[in-house]
Amino acid sequence: MLTATLLGCGGTQPLPGRALSSLAVTVGGHSVLIDCGEGTQVAARRFGVSVYKMAAVLLTHYHGDHIFGLPGLWQTMAAQGRTEPLLMAGPPGLEQLVRALLCVAGPLPFAIQLAEDAAKAGPLPVLGGTVQAFPLRHRTPCCGYAFTLPRAGRFNPARARALGIPVALWRTLQQGRPAGGFQPRQVLGPPRRGLKVVYATDTRPCGALEQAARDADLLCMDSTYPTDEFLAKAREYGHATCPEVGRLAAGAGVRRLWLTHYSAAVTDPAPGLAAAQAFFPAAEAGFDGKQLQLKFDEE
Amino acid sequence: MLTATLLGCGGTQPLPGRALSSLAVTVGGHSVLIDCGEGTQVAARRFGVSVYKMAAVLLTHYHGDHIFGLPGLWQTMAAQGRTEPLLMAGPPGLEQLVRALLCVAGPLPFAIQLAEDAAKAGPLPVLGGTVQAFPLRHRTPCCGYAFTLPRAGRFNPARARALGIPVALWRTLQQGRPAGGFQPRQVLGPPRRGLKVVYATDTRPCGALEQAARDADLLCMDSTYPTDEFLAKAREYGHATCPEVGRLAAGAGVRRLWLTHYSAAVTDPAPGLAAAQAFFPAAEAGFDGKQLQLKFDEE
């Protein structure tokens, strides 16, 4: 099972009652955090996401509303006794950013492992799944993230018995790990549909995003502007309008869509939601603390 | 009139419902902000303190819980169109800190004027009054701040008439500014008692603080630990216990005392408040948004 928690849904400035856009993906109590604006650690605590058990922090880009919560997050991890390394990924510039922030927040009792220029690297293993970065279209180098939790093929007990595999080893093989000299592929059917969560902000609609979001269980996307009246602004600042978001979600065939990263001028998400629903009826308006538990399909 | 607004009362980590310790002193709509931990800009907005109209940001020291809100505050000022220079003061290390934070938050459309090693400098003029920094006793160089709003002497209309000063000039002279070749001292009595607000955290009780707080209208002081059971910890980490705070306030003869900068382990301020009141009965427990309007004494 996987839990997606939208820690905040705001863009540019944190507001009372609206933290900056950030998503936590949690599997087995451990999380991956995507973006960390000012106030993210408080939002995590408010919505039950453990700061201590964050396995990785993924940054889309280095505008302030996506990164200013980092030094406080690190220091809280340190105060809670973390010694395990923290994986951090982001577009080019990550090492420079981390070094500058460590000038004011360091030294820390844990190492930071950098995956710079993440969109050009392969998938990063984390939480028993993988994260793949992909390029977005913003005013500055920016990437989205697709987290995939794979699902092994169906276990074949008859085959396991025929091979003489002791029952005590079945569970391990079922989880895709070798046991007692046996390989999972000997007793598992073809891999089944896993789970995929995609986070993409700040961005214009683009092909790389539509491709990464294909068939996703959940897409959270930059919905800075409610309607196409703001299209010129969206183009100028590298954001999307809600109708564009609805169209992209429909084109990518996602199962669920959450709007996030609203402009500070958007006090009511309803008009933007309606505009997105015209193209993708299942669209939902993101809000701070919005949470979803995703399970593997019944088969 | 002067308004003191406690924007947050927490130490170390921001919590849901408890922002990090920060005080805004407001005169005529413009403010001086003392300390700026993560979340201070949101607290300011929540409690009606204009970020745009902040004349100065004073830092007590450079631990994360007092400074990590700065880059976000600056960018919000920039987004709101600020071009006026921002005065910043702090203990030695200010320029280095500002430079490091500008690496991630800059460039800004306004200049930052630095008053480094503020406790060794004279009073800084701001909001029609002055701010004087003074040294505190913490684990790192740290200073408290005393903001004083002076009050001119009583205006003597008989004397003004005798000198032939046109009535149109009276108000300016009354406010302490020369007008039409006349000097305020020609028509004003001796200066009267003004207003003084003193903010001191993080610190052990110390002589410089007791002296700076003498006769203050309001003292906000580090009350990290509730009772003297925590005295060893208070000494180790450079903080104060509530009984120590009560004793210092009584010794300095302050008019009002607010406890602030509670340890994250303090969920109920009542025991600490009772411990402070044993020495200073008028002590009050600080809370996020606690506000006081101070007026000149009736005479």
Describe this structure in words.
- The structure is a homodimer of 299-residue chains.
- Chain A has 299 residues and is α/β, with parallel strands linked by helices.
- Chain A has one domain: Ribonuclease Z/Hydroxyacylglutathione hydrolase-like (Metallo-beta-lactamase, Chain A), CATH 3.60.15.10.
- Helices cover 25% and strands 25% of the residues of chain A.
- Chain A has 10 helices and 14 strands.
- The first copy, chain A, has helices spanning 40-46, 64-67, 70-79, 94-105, 157-162, 170-174, 207-212, 231-237, 242-252, 270-277, and strands spanning 2-8, 22-27, 30-34, 54-58, 86-90, 112-116, 124-126, 129-135, 143-151, 192-200, 218-222, 257-260, 284-285, 291-294.
- In chain A, the strands form 2 sheets. Chain A has a 7-stranded mixed β-sheet with strand order 6-5-4-3-2-1-14.
- In chain A, helix 3 (70-79) packs across helix 4 and helix 9 packs parallel to helix 10 (270-277).
- Chain A is globular and about 65 Å long.
- The model of chain A has no long low-confidence stretch (mean pLDDT 96).
- Chains A and B meet through helix 1, helix 2, helix 3 and helix 4 of A and helix 1, helix 2, helix 3 and helix 4 of B.
